[in-house]
Amino acid sequence: MNRFATLIDALVFMPSRNGKIRLLADFFSTTPDPDRGWALAALTEALTFNEAKPAAIRQLVAARVDPELFALSYDYVGDLAETVALIWPERHDRANSLPPSLPEVVDTLRAAKRAQVMDLVEGWLDTLDSSGRFALLKLITGSLRVGVSARLAKTALAEWGKVDVGELEECWHGLTPPYLDLFAWLEGRSERPAAGHGAGFRPLMLSHPLEEEDRAGLNPADYSAEWKWDGIRVQLVAKGGERRVYSRTGDDVSGAFPDIVDHMSFDAVLDGELLVARGEGEVASFNDLQQRLNRKAVTAKMLQEFPAWVRLYDILFDGDEDLRGLTFLERRARLERWYGAVQPRRMDLSPLVPFAGWAELEALRENARENSIEGLMLKRRDSAYTAGRPKGPWFKWKRGALTLDTVLMYAQRGHGKRSSYYSDFTFGVWRGDELVPVGKAYFGFTDAELVELDRWVRNRTVRKYGPVREVEPGLVLEVAFDSVHPSNRHKSGLAMRFPRVHRIRWDKPAGEADRLETLQRMVVA
Amino acid sequence: MKVCPEGLYVEPGGFYVDPVRPVERAVITHGHSDHARPGHANVLATSGTLAIMRQRLGEGAGGAQQALEYGEAIRIGDVTVRLAPAGHVLGSAQVVLEYNGSRVVVSGDYKRTFDRTCAPFEPVPCDVFITEATFGLPVFRHPPDLGEVRKLIHSLEIFPERSHVVGVYALGKCQRLITLLRAAGYDRPIYLHGALEPICKLYEGFGIALGELRPATVAVKEELKGALVMAPPGAVADRWARRLTDPVVAMASGWMRVRQRARQRGVELPLVISDHADWDELTQTLEDVGAPEVWVTHGREEALVHHATQRGIRARALALVGFEEEGA
């Protein structure tokens, strides 16, 4: 448990993705089996046992600590698991009893009846140190929340074992904790475990943005076009009775979309865009879709208000037949045939967009102003479905962004490499003679521009609130964004999608920045 | 004894302990800036504290300075004054006051953990114990300091190309951490922010070996890769730190015990090393001095007063203002 606890601590504080990968790799290379495998299972939420409720943990601590002292401490710390981990009175005879190993904790918990769990936990709390207690409490309450997704863990494993992450994905689903065969393979002691597949995630094929110079070298006749929908990319896997919805990074989000899972009564692997419907077959805004994201469970009300469906654009497996080696046109034909035969509810096909040449396509792209469309996808007709982001077969061609001249209002310090810079900018537009904030952006500028922005912020600060500085209204930021929606979360009543700093208008007086009415007119209902 | 706007006033002696405003006569427990303030006419403290005050405050260190070593006694007015080691930083002292057959001890800031850079805390039995409570909540338990230092050394091993910049208070924490690193076997040069150098020199003058120290300010960027750099807490996440390559930001402080607090400060590697007593040390000290009455000066008073009251001790919070968290 100690090594696992140390890892959890380090992950909690590590802000960068690469740093997390390094910590995981170090852990995998220095921790023996089966400890590292159980840790991997805990991190990827692949463990199931009777979880403990917060109320039961409060009861445990109430028997050990003066209630007033506990209340004062909880007030100060704010997190239950952390307060209990820190306040739990250490026994002086602790040195005589060995803290449990992670495998011991997992094995015992998996075998335990619900009624036994808290007794076990109490005994362990007495033998662990505070980091160990924190890790244990997080483990038994069912979520570690240390910023490690399944995808990140796999990336770390792949980097450490010097294998391609796609290869790892191929065999991932056949593996079970504590993953002895996986570690044996990654350490070069055995062959890659058999591709168990089943309902596992298949690595996605991704696209490149289409640049002006790319287009010159492309023959439009080689490509098919589709709309690029403003939803989230998902992979639907229905295999051998199991049904999964995966995000584009391979995280299992099935729990959030029972309305999709319910209708996956087929045997196939499909690629498509998850959207929320409004009325008959109409796409609701991304804001509505966001109501459904990042939830482990959904209420009946949400299912009714924000019904999900999937707009399909590719098929990877039909039954046991792997279609990934076929060309795009062949797969498209198979998808249409499959769809016609199965007629799944809550799913439709993303139509192909016919076009004769670049000029026509460009006009189509510019005239598509519905919120649900982000632009166009171009897919090479003779291309196979290849994992990763190969350059050439798939391009995304987003429609031009909207822009607005805004005034910088607040700046906040960044994180990691940017921790000494004011790099997160809140900007506003004029309503009458006052500024109302309309969004926040933290990219779109170069490192050299960041140095200048940072200096400007430090010299024009009028007030400080912790890490945030309010600046005088004197700098115009031309902000680019994909679309704008009504929102009751913001004072201005509007929320931008993907705002980024397009240009810094050092030359433009703040008084000439845009007004709120201008932004309101950009809202597409 | 009474609490005035200037601070804690010892009436029969006509002097203040750690006053926050300039006064005629002051007894100073230790050199941190919230306790040793400038502009007093007469200052009494240990020679260590006086040396620190002269270095930090220059002319402001006091009109007349009188050194009183640990164990020596002096009479001021009707009061006998003695200084006992507090174990907080070099020169730090508790003020032991005797008047009319009763004894009051003002702890100043203190800790009970072993520290190579200062004399260990001496519990003095008394009638009234006036204590700090910076870490006066039972969630504050400082782990063994060598273990924390090993975490730092381990991180230097995992990230050998990244500078490790440790936020430390210039007086006390910096030098203690260096001696801990040396004790753990770290013998490479340690790079210092300019603000830390004078106090390190002063400590060395008092016979505390710190090993090879180099200024971080003139060191070339290449040399700082994988090096250990120490800087005041305010500098580690600010412009000064830009000279470092992709630094690991560490902070050595008792506050690092609470994860959220460490994360708010952007700390990647929290080191729970404090020069203040933790909860167990505070409560143990109340037992050791056996005082029937306890006053709590600053910190999280409420919990310590509650604890003392439950143990049958008359306790109250003085809520002295002006004491910040330097040296925590």
Short description:
The complex is a heterodimer of chains A (525) and B (328). By secondary structure, chain A is an alpha+beta fold.
Q: Quickly give the structural class of chain A.
A: alpha+beta
Q: Under the CATH scheme, which architecture of the largest domain in chain A would be assigned?
A: 2-Layer Sandwich
What level of helicity do the residues of chain B show?
Answer: 10-25%
User: Count of helical segments of chain B?
Assistant: 9
What string gives the helices and strands of chain B in order? EEEEEHEEEEEEHEHEHEHEHEHEHEHE
Largest sheet of chain A: 7 strands, mixed
Q: What general outline of chain B do the C-alpha atoms trace?
A: globular
Shape of chain A: globular
Q: How would you sum up this structure, described in words?
A:
The complex is a heterodimer of chains A (525) and B (328). With 525 residues, chain A is α+β, with helices and mostly antiparallel strands. Chain A has 3 domains: 2-140, DNA ligase, ATP-dependent, N-terminal domain (DNA ligase i, domain 1, Orthogonal Bundle); 208-398, D-amino Acid Aminotransferase, Chain A, domain 1 (2-Layer Sandwich), CATH 3.30.470; 402-521, OB fold (Dihydrolipoamide Acetyltransferase, E2P) (Beta Barrel), CATH 2.40.50. Chain A is 35% helix and 24% strand. The relative contact order of chain A is 0.08. In chain B, strand 13 (190-192), helix 4 (197-205) and strand 14 form a beta-alpha-beta unit. In chain B, helix 2 (145-158) crosses helix 3. In chain B, the strands form 3 sheets. In chain B, strands 7-8-9-10-11-18-19 form a 7-stranded mixed sheet, with helices on one face. The chains are: A alpha+beta (525), B alpha/beta (328). Chains A and B meet through helix 1, helix 2, helix 5 and helix 6 of A and helix 7 and helix 9 of B. Chain A: This is DNA ligase (ATP). Chain A: GO terms for molecular function: DNA ligase (ATP) activity. Chain A: Keywords: ATP-binding, Cell cycle, Cell division, DNA damage, DNA recombination, DNA repair, DNA replication, Ligase, Magnesium, Metal-binding, Nucleotide-binding. Chain A: It catalyses: ATP + (deoxyribonucleotide)n-3'-hydroxyl + 5'-phospho-(deoxyribonucleotide)m = (deoxyribonucleotide)n+m + AMP + diphosphate.
